[in-house]
């Protein structure tokens, strides 16, 4: 795809208008700067979230935003979509200074945002969601017919005419929901669509479809701000890249395809690191069997799974969402009741229940940080000591001072930012929240750590840190059982890999014996592509 | 897997991972305890939740406003310091029984539940401890009976909710009906007079000029505050109410703890039953009518989040006292109970509205100040 700004002179409004895939605003000129931010500053309690952001987005381009968690990407999105107002600096929208005092104002101006956690009303229909807040109506009655027709048009433009407008959003797969979000953006005749990690909720093959839609949108002169942690995606879909670090633009308008990875990463982190995994120790560090799972079964989730983890060993489980891997982890942890099979720690059969697992030395960082692991309104130190505060207590009386000191020690060793352990966890970025969850199990003698998608939504820099933490734990003799949908992560981090498909372990091998393609073949083989819209 | 990355343990500028067990390195312990000293002292006065303390200032403001209203409407009474002191004691005495119930209710609500059966439990415990058979065992037997009945009924609630997986609203609503029914059948719908002078003296006597009932309220409030803010029980309560799944996955026995919360509420009802029986020198199945509403309203006014995970004992106490002050205000002005109830309803709504507004702006203000101090 040619960069639209290559030759703005030839791209006329008429040229755009003759491609009717999407009703593009007629006055859009490809290559014209639609959005320009100059020195935008936004402060929050205790944080300078944006500290001089420059951004220039042109019509018809896919402009990628890169930055670590906490770099200010989310805040920037919220400023653009009218949720927050900048403290200073200038926002220029289509050549004129603009302030969006609320999300409706931004929508009206033509800026639509598709959030990571899709903000759809699950119990309304596709059409009702697409036109939520600006329903077709007459005399106070919603004109369902018109709306359905209009929705169908938009959906078929998006290449998904098969989604019935009357269907409840709840019943759609993640990819379908994302299409509905995009339909909503188009129903507003958006000129700029902001996509916050759109691929995070999608299976591999659905990402291709997403890219096709994005290309069609940009061909119509619509600008897209694309946020992703996956560099490969940025290479594939992006035109230009702006890099944020600590709320500041560290590089603007880099060519997405040709900028070396090393450069991008160094702009994000301020140091030159590669997306690499810590070395495996030269000699086999693994000790005695720590965890032994035999014939573990839960109908409909997984069947007859046997595995073992030795002290000091990292065992990775690769598999798609729905392959039963998260359920397996939760069952080992005692959070789900096994229907058959046994779980042994140190040779002893575990009684059911999380309490028994924790007492036996297990710890788990669950898949969903916010809903499964954190007390968002509580201070960091109380989250770090959530599993261990009882051990610092005397006769049932908690020792807040000791807890703070321990949490502070963890915060320091994990390089938690910011370090203030009295701050509510809510105010931390995703990567730092994950550190809090992992840090919880660094206290109090955890022998086996179960990690479910430890780096989901965590940026490259924080990822490398987490990998180091995990490897260092193993070096101290902790066994690690890791689940991830990212095959390179499993292969790069684990000593031994189990591949799961449809609830069964289909391959077990040392990590060195497998490569990414082999694992992907195993994972996908014979399975229907999940999540395809009906 | 490039050679560029050294193994983490060998990287010099990277702090070492913490040892798996608490540190034994003397230097590290010294740092930890030094830090602990400063933060430890801080935490004693602000332990009831930093934001909560600020919210409570608002409640004290409301209380002050009510006193001003009283002084304006009845200046001749408020001019007399003796009368004012006695009136304060009267208000506290009025607040004492509901106050004790509210402490238990606060725990239940912070833990993510609700207990509609508190009034009924008070009535059942009161009736049970004043039966002829129980009274034969003397005051000790009566108190023991009231407490055990309260705890047992609370446990039934707790078991139904945590192990029977009933919605708290339904389980305690059923208990509300059932416990009053049982109380009526035990008492044969009669008023049972307490013949124990020890029990009857609790409400009648003063120590150092302050009614014993007020001391009981004070003791329960202090115990509740310590339990919530200084014990593992309190921490579990906040965790269970704030995010039950996270609590469960951290190894907390959520069900058992939920059960204990309702038992605690029942225990508070048992204490309240003795206090109320003492006040009336009798007990009957209709006593403690609508206490559940007063207790829930006081907790909510006090800033306890209905969805769980946040709340303060001090706030709840202030909520109860505000309600008692309003009742007192109406009484000295000779207004009807009907008017009182209407105003109370309005005040519940107003208090929540004002507090939501106030809370937001307050945290924002607070946050802004912190920015300047942080940098």
UniProtKB/TrEMBL annotation, chain B:
<keyword id="KW-1133">Transmembrane helix</keyword>
<keyword id="KW-1003">Cell membrane</keyword>
<protein>
    <submittedName>
        <fullName>ABC transporter</fullName>
    </submittedName>
</protein>
<dbReference type="GO" id="GO:0005886">
    <property type="term" value="C:plasma membrane"/>
</dbReference>
<feature type="transmembrane region" description="Helical">
    <location>
        <begin position="116"/>
        <end position="134"/>
    </location>
</feature>
<dbReference type="InterPro" id="IPR001851">
    <property type="entry name" value="ABC_transp_permease"/>
</dbReference>
<dbReference type="Pfam" id="PF02653">
    <property type="entry name" value="BPD_transp_2"/>
</dbReference>
<feature type="compositionally biased region" description="Low complexity">
    <location>
        <begin position="1"/>
        <end position="12"/>
    </location>
</feature>
<feature type="transmembrane region" description="Helical">
    <location>
        <begin position="141"/>
        <end position="160"/>
    </location>
</feature>
<feature type="transmembrane region" description="Helical">
    <location>
        <begin position="259"/>
        <end position="278"/>
    </location>
</feature>
<feature type="transmembrane region" description="Helical">
    <location>
        <begin position="207"/>
        <end position="228"/>
    </location>
</feature>
<feature type="region of interest" description="Disordered">
    <location>
        <begin position="1"/>
        <end position="45"/>
    </location>
</feature>
<keyword id="KW-0812">Transmembrane</keyword>
<feature type="transmembrane region" description="Helical">
    <location>
        <begin position="53"/>
        <end position="72"/>
    </location>
</feature>
<feature type="transmembrane region" description="Helical">
    <location>
        <begin position="166"/>
        <end position="186"/>
    </location>
</feature>
<feature type="transmembrane region" description="Helical">
    <location>
        <begin position="84"/>
        <end position="110"/>
    </location>
</feature>
<feature type="transmembrane region" description="Helical">
    <location>
        <begin position="313"/>
        <end position="332"/>
    </location>
</feature>
<dbReference type="GO" id="GO:0022857">
    <property type="term" value="F:transmembrane transporter activity"/>
</dbReference>
<keyword id="KW-0472">Membrane</keyword>
């Amino acid at each position: 795809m040619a960069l639209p700004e290559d030759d703005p002179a030839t791209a006329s409004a008429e040229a755009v208008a003759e491609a009717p895939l999407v009703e593009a605003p007629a006055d859009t000129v490809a290559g014209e700067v639609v959005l320009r931010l100059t020195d935008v500053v936004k402060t929050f309690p205790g944080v300078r979230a944006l500290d001089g952001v420059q951004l220039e987005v042109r019509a018809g381009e896919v402009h990628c935003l890169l930055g670590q968690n906490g770099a200010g990407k989310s805040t920037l999105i919220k400023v653009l979509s009218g949720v927050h107002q900048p403290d200073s600096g200038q926002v220029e929208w289509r050549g004129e200074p603009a302030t969006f005092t609320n999300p409706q104002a931004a929508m009206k101006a033509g800026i639509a945002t598709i959030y990571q956690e899709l903000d759809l009303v699950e119990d309304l229909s596709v059409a009702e969601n697409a036109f939520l807040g600006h329903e077709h109506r007459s005399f106070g009655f919603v004109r369902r017919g018109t709306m359905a027709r209009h929705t169908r048009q938009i959906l078929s433009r998006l290449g998904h005419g098969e989604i019935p407008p009357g269907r409840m959003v709840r019943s759609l797969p993640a990819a379908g929901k994302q299409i509905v979000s995009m339909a909503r953006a188009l129903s507003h005749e958006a000129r700029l669509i902001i996509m916050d990690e759109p691929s995070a909720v999608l299976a591999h093959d659905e990402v291709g479809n997403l890219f096709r839609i994005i290309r069609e949108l940009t061909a119509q002169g619509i600008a897209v701000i694309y946020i992703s942690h996956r560099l490969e995606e940025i290479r594939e879909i992006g035109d230009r890249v702006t890099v944020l670090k600590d709320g500041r633009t560290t590089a603007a308008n880099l060519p997405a395809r040709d900028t070396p990875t090393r450069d991008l990463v160094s702009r994000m982190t301020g140091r030159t690191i590669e997306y690499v995994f810590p070395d495996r120790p030269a000699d086999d560090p693994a000790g005695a069997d720590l965890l032994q799972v035999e014939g573990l079964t839960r109908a409909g989730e997984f069947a007859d799974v046997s595995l073992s983890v030795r002290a000091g060993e990292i065992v990775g489980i690769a598999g798609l969402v729905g392959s039963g891997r998260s359920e397996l982890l939760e069952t080992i942890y005692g959070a789900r009741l096994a229907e058959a099979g046994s779980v042994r720690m140190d040779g002893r059969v575990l009684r059911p229940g999380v309490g028994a697992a924790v007492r036996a030395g297990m710890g788990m960082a669950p898949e969903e940080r916010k809903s499964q692991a954190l007390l968002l309104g509580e201070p960091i130190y109380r989250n770090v000591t959530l599993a261990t505060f009882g051990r610092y207590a005397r006769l049932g009386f908690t020792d807040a001072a000791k807890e703070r000191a321990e949490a502070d020690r963890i915060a320091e060793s994990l390089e938690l930012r910011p370090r203030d352990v009295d701050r509510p966890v809510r105010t931390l970025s995703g990567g730092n929240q994950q550190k809090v969850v992992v840090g919880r199990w660094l206290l109090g003698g955890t022998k086996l750590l179960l990690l479910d998608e430890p780096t989901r939504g965590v940026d490259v820099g924080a990822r490398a840190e987490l990998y180091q933490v995990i490897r260092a734990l193993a070096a101290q003799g902790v066994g690690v059982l890791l689940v991830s949908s990212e095959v390179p992560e499993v292969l790069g981090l684990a000593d031994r890999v189990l591949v799961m498909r449809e609830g069964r372990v289909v391959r077990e091998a040392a990590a060195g014996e497998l490569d990414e393609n082999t694992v992907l073949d195993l994972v996908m083989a014979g399975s229907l592509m999940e999540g395809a819209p009906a | 897997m490039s050679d560029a990355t050294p193994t983490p343990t060998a990287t010099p500028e990277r702090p070492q991972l913490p040892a798996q067990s608490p540190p034994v390195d003397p230097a590290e312990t010294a740092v930890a305890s030094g830090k602990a000293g400063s933060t430890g002292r801080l935490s004693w006065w602000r332990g009831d939740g930093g934001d909560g303390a600020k919210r409570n200032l608002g409640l004290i403001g409301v209380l002050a406003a009510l006193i001003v209203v009283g002084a304006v409407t009845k200046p001749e009474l408020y001019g007399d310091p003796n009368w004012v002191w006695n009136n304060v004691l009267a208000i506290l005495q009025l607040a004492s029984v509901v106050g004790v119930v509210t402490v238990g209710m606060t725990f239940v609500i912070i833990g993510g539940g609700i207990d509609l059966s508190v009034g009924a439990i008070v009535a059942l415990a009161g009736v049970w401890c004043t039966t002829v058979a129980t009274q034969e065992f003397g005051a000790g037997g009566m108190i023991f009976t009231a407490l055990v009945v309260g705890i047992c009924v609370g446990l039934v609630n707790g078991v139904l909710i945590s192990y029977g997986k009933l919605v708290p609203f339904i389980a305690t609503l059923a208990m509300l009906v059932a416990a009053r029914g049982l109380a009526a059948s035990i008492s044969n719908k009669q008023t049972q007079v307490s013949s124990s002078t020890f029990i009857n003296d609790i409400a009648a006597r003063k120590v150092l000029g302050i009614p014993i009932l007020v001391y009981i309220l004070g003791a329960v409030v202090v115990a509740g505050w310590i339990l919530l803010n200084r014990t593992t029980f309190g921490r579990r309560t906040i965790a269970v109410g704030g995010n039950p799944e996270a609590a469960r996955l951290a190894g907390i026995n959520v069900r058992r703890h939920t059960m204990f919360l309702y038992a605690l509420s029942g225990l508070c009802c048992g204490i309240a039953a003795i206090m109320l029986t003492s006040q009336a020198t009798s007990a009957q199945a209709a006593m403690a009518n609508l206490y559940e509403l007063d207790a829930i309203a006081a907790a909510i006014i006090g800033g306890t989040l209905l969805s769980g995970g946040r709340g303060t004992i001090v706030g709840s106490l202030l909520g109860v006292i505000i309600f008692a002050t309003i009742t007192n205000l109406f009484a000295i002005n000779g207004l009807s109970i009907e008017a009182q109830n209407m105003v109370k309803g309005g005040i519940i709504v107003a208090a929540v509205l004002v507090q939501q507004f106030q809370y937001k702006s307050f945290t924002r203000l607070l946050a802004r100040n912190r920015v300047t101090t942080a940098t």
